[in-house]
Specification:
about 80 residues, binds iron/sulfur cluster, mainly alpha, globular
Length: about 80
């Protein structure tokens, strides 16, 4: 899996704890950073392919990301 995009990750310039919010905590600030990140698409593609289950990736919170991963897997299985 190509991870060259991580060199341009905007989250590397901010508090990493923002991307791992406590249960019930807000991911709003992390998502705001993702929205300004040049490698958001690559980050999200990586997270889906890797099956990341924790934290904010590509502008999605972990529940959103888990739903997307389940949906993609269901699409793959149905094809
Ligand atoms: S999209 Fe968000 S989590 Fe992904 S590299 Fe950019 S800032 Fe980091």
């Amino acid at each position: 899996m190509n991870t060259d995009w991580q060199e341009d990750a905007l989250c590397a310039q901010v508090d990493p704890d923002l991307f791992m919010p406590e249960v019930g905590g807000s991911a709003k600030d992390a998502k705001r950073t993702c929205n300004a990140c040049d490698v958001r698409a690559q980050c999200l593609a990586y997270a889906v392919e890797a099956g990341e289950r924790w934290g904010v990736w590509g502008g999605l919170g972990q529940q959103e990301l888990r739903r997307l991963i389940r949906a993609r897997r269901a699409e793959t299985e149905a094809a």
